[in-house]
Write a sequence for this structure.
């Protein structure tokens, strides 16, 4: 099945050049990598204006095997937010200490190919998630970011609590 054409979105002409270029590169990435767990016919995008001066595009990339690992991309005028399930999200292009928007597509590619790991530490009230990018040649882990989420939003309370879990984000 084929990927949707982002240019077919109603209001596509209202997007800035950077947003259209990012969406074109994203479509190229998804079509060239052909990650088997990306349901290409289920990739969806919607344009949202909601009182903003510049519209945003939300792109959902579902994971066939694990719906908790679906990606949600928010493409703004000069920034991209990559969310992966309830686990966490990363801002690209908001300035220091966030990475530049140019690093968003390589990070998405790493997720598609299974080169991102999440270390999840469950607590009674808070769940800590640390995101690591796996270094190709050495296989080492490079910390990308770490954050905490209230346990109620992090998959709910668990009894007995699992203290630590490592999950790989992968669409292969």
């Amino acid at each position: 099945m084929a990927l949707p054409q982002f240019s077919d979105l109603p209001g596509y002409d209202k997007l800035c050049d950077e947003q259209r270029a990012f969406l074109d590169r994203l479509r190229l990435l998804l079509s060239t990598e052909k990650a088997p767990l990306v349901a290409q016919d289920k990739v969806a995008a919607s344009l949202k204006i909601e009182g903003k001066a510049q519209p945003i595009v939300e792109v959902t990339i579902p994971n066939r095997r694990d719906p908790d690992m679906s990606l949600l991309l928010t493409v703004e005028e000069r920034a991209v937010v990559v969310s992966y399930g309830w686990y966490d999200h990363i801002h690209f292009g908001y300035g220091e200490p966030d990475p530049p928007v140019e690093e968003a597509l390589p990070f998405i590619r790493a997720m598609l190919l299974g080169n991102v790991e999440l270390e999840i530490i469950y607590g009674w009230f808070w769940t800590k998630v640390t995101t690591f990018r796996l270094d190709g040649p050495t296989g080492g882990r490079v910390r990308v970011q770490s954050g905490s989420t209230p346990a109620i939003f992090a998959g709910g309370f668990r009894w007995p609590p699992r203290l630590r879990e490592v999950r790989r984000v992968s669409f292969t």
Q: What stands out?
A: The mean pLDDT is 87. Helices lie at 17-33, 104-112. Residues 6-169 form one domain.
